[in-house]
Amino acid sequence: MLRQLSLRDFVIVDALDLEFEPGFTVLTGETGAGKSILVDALALALGERGDAGVVREGAARADISAEFDCAALPALQGWLRANELDEEGDCLLRRVIDNSGRSRCFINGRNVTAQQLREAGEFLVDIHGQHAHQSLLKSAAQRDLLDSYGGLQALAQLTAERYRQWRGQHDKLAALRQNSAELDAERERLQWQTSELGALQFSVPAWEALQAEHRRLANAASLMEGVAFALDTLSEGEAAAAHQINAVTAKLASLAAYDTGLQPVCDLLESAAVQLQEAGYTLRRYGDHLEADPLRLSETERRIEQVLDMARKYRVKPEELVETFTRAQTRLDELGLLADPGALEKDTESARQHWLEAAGKLSIGRAKTAKKLARAVTESMQHLALAGGVFEIGLTQLPEGNAYGLEQVEFMVAPHTGTAPKPLAKVASGGELSRISLALQTAVSQVAGVPTLIFDEVDVGIGGSVAEIVGTLLKHLAAHRQVLCITHLPQVAACGGHHLQVSKEASNGSVVSRIAVLENAARVDEIARMLGGVTITDTTRKHAAEMLGVPS
């Protein structure tokens, strides 16, 4: 669950450290006080796109941190370990956005990508925005919601992958049938290229070794001259360094008998003499094998010119010839498959059957899930001023199917008794759509694995006794999840186990948002304000106390 949310210089918040409790928490306040800012901040901490506009005016950066208790989330713990981000029992998400729009993301203090924040957030929070009901009018949103409710996301993804594989094979077969002459010409060209490049027998290690050998052979005279000079100077000449060091060592050794302080110098000189002697041996061995070989030099030059000519022909660097050969061979192999229409047709049909197999399982799952979800939403509708209404999910078969399966998902509703179910977009008013959306969201959230659910003014368009039912619905949901709800409705606010009030105030010449934890009399006053507006009377205060079930 969400333990703490900390904001620094975010929109109109200068500094805020807010702790959250289990159960049902409501956030209330005047319009424009900044209630939804908390949801926006949390969404950024969960990896949503952000820009410089979220940084408070005059500040260098906005800093958002959200701390979660993940001790009861083994799936998240496994994900954290797999990404080397694990911490015992906790998960700290942090997002920093500077006033140039650059963003940095952290999980448990380690740098991560925004995508990793989103992946972690999927285990932790489900946010239902105040405009979520608008997306319900889109077929894709309806399909995704149904699959989410039935736990069919993985099967839907597999179906899409297999559809793409089948269509890829299908397109190859179509290309073979339509462009056989062009493919034959390409195949012939690639066969010639792979034959030519293969005959070159080129490899990068051999090319590097050849160049090294050429440098040695081309400079053999200079190498032999240099070795002879070095041997003469170090050990074989009359004034060789080795002879002089030996003489100095002998002289100092005799003097060391008078002063042992010279002994370390003698030891160093003896070591130097040994090193010089070893260097001389090594140079002699090297020189014994060093000789001019004009014939081999000519061979290396011809080989180098052969490689360079081939590289110029294909307009690549010599080191890229291997990649050029591999690319041509891969394409030739693909064309080899295309050369056998029968084999390609067989592979195409096999890919189609694999797609149909996954799509068929998905259809069965959707059919079962549609009935279950329809019953759950229909039951909720009876308590949301839609008594007698019916919610159904139509699954219309698609003749050809697509990446999303074999059917089109369509939400249908009959808002009142005696009306036939019709597509949601055609029959539901704004208020009805809002209530149906809430019924759907609560139904899906009850089977979701995330521990924290946030409802941002999803109760827009409802009121009266229905609002009280909505509050009770959210309260029941909070028995199994941590629920946070931003609301303008006193009936919903009164159902919360915890109450936070958001307000604005002037501070250092600017307006900032503040949040206070309300208890007892302060909570009664806030509910009374929501009931009666600016002027709070004894009557509204008494009504608020009754709603909260406390003495007035």
Description:
Helix 8 crosses helix 12 and helix 9 packs antiparallel against helix 11. The strands form three sheets. The protein has a six-stranded antiparallel sheet with strand order 2-1-4-5-6-7. A six-stranded mixed sheet has the order 8-12-13-3-14-15. It has a three-stranded antiparallel sheet with strand order 9-10-11. The chain is α/β, with parallel strands linked by helices and 552 residues long. It is built from 20 helices and 15 strands.
User: What distance separates the N and C termini?
Assistant: 34 Å
Helix percentage range: 55-70%
Mean model confidence by pLDDT: 87
Low-pLDDT runs of 5+ residues are: none
Total strand segments: 15
Rounded to an integer in angstroms, the radius of gyration calculated over CA atoms is 39 Å
Q: Looking at the structure, what is the overall shape?
A: flat
Strand order of the largest sheet: 2-1-4-5-6-7
Main β-sheet description: 6 strands, antiparallel
- The multimeric state of the shown protein is single chain
Report the structural category: alpha/beta
Q: Count up the helices.
A: 20
% residues in beta strands: 15-25%
